[in-house]
Design brief:
153 residues, alpha+beta, 5 helices, 3 strands, 52% helix
Length: 153
């Protein structure tokens, strides 16, 4: 036997498995942290999407009653909206749903036939905000929806 072989043959492998297990535990904990934060973002985005859809639909129901009474409903196509009433209907919907807060940025765009709602906010990431003591544990989330009035024959 060579001297090099004898030197390695006498060494013990004790403790090597412990290091591998510790490494795997760290990797598993990081994966759980990432999945938790991504899930929080996904759920917040789904909440904003549902709110934007509902708000846009509420705004699209604010038809221009004066125009309809004067000219009647069209046989087909868009029904005229009252932009001021549509914007107020969107804000009322968001208020009734308990979503209006200082962190929620609402952009409402109305025309004579459509209502578009964009909601933006920053949400806290459960694990990242804990690890970083809240310094950078937030992420931007946004959703948008558009509703249009129409008479379909």
């Amino acid at each position: 036997m060579s001297a090099k072989f004898r030197r390695f043959a006498g060494r013990s492998d004790e403790g090597t498995v412990l290091l591998l297990i510790l490494g795997l535990v760290v990797v598993a904990a990081l994966l759980v942290a990432v999945v938790t934060d991504v899930s929080a973002l996904y759920l917040k985005r789904q909440e904003l999407i549902a709110a934007a859809d509902g708000a846009a639909l509420a705004g699209a129901q604010a038809v221009d009653e004066e125009s309809i009474y004067r000219n009647g409903l069209p046989a087909s196509g868009p029904v005229p909206l009252d932009p001021v009433s549509a914007e107020q209907a969107v804000r009322d919907y968001l208020t009734d749903a308990g979503l209006l807060s200082a962190r929620l940025e609402v952009t409402i765009t109305t025309s004579t036939t459509t209502v578009s709602v964009v909601l933006r906010t920053r949400t806290d990431l459960p694990v990242a905000s804990t690890v970083t003591a809240g310094a950078s544990g937030t992420a931007a989330v946004s959703a948008s929806a558009t509703a249009r009035t129409a008479v379909i024959p």
